[in-house]
Amino acid sequence: MASIHPDTQIGLVALTVAELDRSIRFYNGVLGFRLIQRRDGTAALGVEQTPLLVLAEQPGARPKSPYMTGLYHFAILVPTRADLARSLRRLAETRYPLGGSSDHLVSEALYLSDPDGNGIEVYRDRPPSAWPVQSGQVQMAVDPLDLEDLLAELERDRRPWQGLAPGTRIGHIHLQVADLRRAEAFYHGVLGFDVTQHMPGALFVSAGGYHHHLGLNTWHTRGAPPPPAGSAGLRYFTIRLPDEAEQARVAQRLQAAEIPFAQRDGVLALRDPWDNRILLTVGPALPFEEVLTVTP
User: Fold this and answer.
1) I need a surface site. Which of 53, 59, 129, 216 has the fewest CB within 10 A?
2) Which CATH superfamily is domain 9-293 in?
3) Are 209 and 197 in contact (CB under 8 A)?
4) Domain ranges, ordered by start, for the chain
5) Which element (helix H / strand E) includes 45?
6) Containing H/E element for 177?
7) Cβ 166 vs Cβ 80: under 8 Å
C-alpha cells in the first residue's frame, strides 16, 4: 500500500459557531489569531496573512455532544516553548479556563475549549531526535506538564504577548469516531497516512514520520452517530498535499475504494465514514475567496 506523500500536512480548520462576534473575541483576544477577512457571517483568522481557521455563524447552534462523533480537538502548533509559555500566561491574564495540560514525550500541550465547546490544543513539539521510538512506532504518553517550569521560559525570553507567533500552524486534528477498524481502513488504507501508534481506544496516523497528523478515538463514541445538522463543531478540515500528482494518486485510491468525492477548482472534497468533511488541497494555502466560500 502506498503511503501519502511525506510533505503532507493539515491545512486549516473550519468550525460552525453560534455567535460569530463572540468567537472572534475569543480566537483573537485570548488565543491570538489575527482576523484576516470577514464576510456574510463567516470569518477567516490566522497568523500574518495565512488563514488557519474559518468560523461560520449559525445562530442557535448547540454544542456537539461528547458522545457523538466529530471534532475532539484541533491542535495549534506554536514554534517554540517560549511561545507556548506566552499562550499559558495569556490564558491566565484573561482568566480563561484551562481544561488540562500534558507532557506527551514528543510534545507539551495545553487544552481548552472555545465558547461553543470546540476542543483546542495549543502545543509545541520537542525535536524529532528526542521522540521515543519502539518497534518502529513513535511512543507518546499523557504525563503531567510542569506549568511552573514552562512559565520559567519567560524569564529567559521576555518578549511581550503579540498574538500567535509567525510560523504557527495547525499541527494536527483529533476526531471522535465510532469504529477504529473503519478509521484505520479509511485514513491509513485509503488516504495513505502511516500508523504511528495504537493505544487503547485510539489510533494515531501521520505523513513523513511526524508523531501524528490525525488522532482518532472511540473513548466515548464507539458505535455513536454523527451530531445532528445545525450543531456547533467541525465543518471541514483541509489536508494540504504538495502537488497535483499526489492529489491524483489519492483520487485514484478513492476511486478504487468506491469512496465518492467531488473535484472543483483544484480542490478535492470528500467525507469520512462519519460524515466529517475533508478537503484535499494543493499548495500552501487556499485563497481568501475560497476559504470563505467553499462548502464541501
Assistant:
1) 129
2) 2,3-Dihydroxybiphenyl 1,2-Dioxygenase, domain 1 (3.10.180.10)
3) no
4) 9-293
5) strand 42-47
6) none
7) no
**Is residue 289 over pLDDT 70?**
no
Please tell me the distance from the alpha carbon of residue 143 to that of residue 221, in angstroms, as a whole number: 24
The cell numbers describing 19, all together, are 455567535
Using CA atoms, how far residue 256 sits from 5, 191, 261, 266, in Å, is 18, 11, 12, 20
pTM above 0.90, yes or no: yes
- 129 phi, psi to nearest 5 deg: -65, -20
CA within 13 Å, CB half, 175? 29
pLDDT of residue 50: 92
pLDDT digits (tens, 9 = 90+) for 247-259: 999 999 999 999 9
191: left (phi over 0), alpha (psi -120 to 50) or beta: alpha
pLDDT tens per residue across span 170-215? 999 999 999 999 999 999 999 999 999 999 999 999 999 999 999 9
Q: Is residue 295's pLDDT more than 80?
A: no
pLDDT score for 292: 53
All three cell numbers of 284, joined, read 500552501
Q: What is the pLDDT of residue 294?
A: 55
Separation of alpha carbons 226 and 246, rounded Å: 30
- CA–CA distance, 192 with 186 (Å, rounded to integer): 8
pLDDT tens, position by position, 87-139: 999 999 999 999 999 999 999 999 999 999 999 999 999 999 999 988 878 88
CB 214 within 8 A of CB 187: yes
